[in-house]
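Q: Hi! First time doing this. I have a protein sequence and I read that you can turn it into a structure. Is that right? Here it is:
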Amino acid sequence: MVKSLKGNNTKKALPVQEPAVDIAIGGKPADQAKMIEVINEMCKSDAGRVILETAADNGYELKFDKQLAKNGRYGEADPYEELCVLNPKNTLAENIVTLAHELRHAHQFTFEELDEAYYSEYDTKTMVLKERIMEADAESYGCLVAWELKEKGNDLCWQDMTAEFPEITTPFEKTLKETGDMNQARTAAFKGWYDNDERRDSYDETMISCVTAIAPKEFKKKLKSISAAKFVNAFCSDPETGDVYFSENPKDLEKGKYITVYEDVKEALIAHHQQREALAGRIPDKSLNALETQPRPEPEKGQAKAVSADAKEAALAGRQKKAAARIRSQKKPALPSIALLQRKDKSR
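A: Yes, that's right. Below is the predicted 3D structure, encoded as structure tokens:
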């Protein structure tokens, strides 16, 4: 109760909304209230509640970070700090889908044997497979949460995803209507992630920045490899049951569009590994031969860019700095590193 200074009238304090999941929330009271709104709406989806509970069990904290707005990011997760941050300028719908995506990464990193796939110890193909499978799965999970909320009467997340990620939502909805099988629908959404060349390339750019932050002498003499099947069986599993939803042959992810990069990306990776292979006893990274290529398209004249060149350069510099810091501190940067655990603006 709060007494009025002008009389004996009293004003009741507004009730504080409680989060539907007991998870750490950082920031000012207003930011905490905003995050609680995200949590409680997200929990109307079964998948949303499960991934929040999993993150809470793993000790994650949620908060808003203004820096993400400057870098054109929806959000990011740091598995080392057990922290997930969101862009305060996101809409409620964007925050829900982004939080589902980032906390899916938190679940992925509970697989310790795969978290140990370091840039300096594993071949390039393994790194490409790991990054892409993690991102495709995280976006597929966000799609699932958005669909479940739509089924509960809130279609704002689904509308947003459909407008921005049609290559993910369209095959999901089409497959679900045709088959009635949620696993097949999630698989279709997963595969759809690979159909946006620009977004896929933005993650490849980050990979190059992390690889080139490693001095050639720090790579192992012989690089190890991990199959797509092993990544799928770990990352595409559900927290509660451990069941894998991916309904097709994971080996298909090792060919065609799933392993295709722009020509300049492959050239940059080859150039850095040639420096490594020039050192005594280094065995060549033959997995580079498995990367298929396509020419980088010319930018369209007059094409609008939502993220400025300065913002892009700042983001890239930040990723390189973080990757280098991980190495210097001997806290080996797994793939994806903090820089890669991001849900990026499609215009980037």
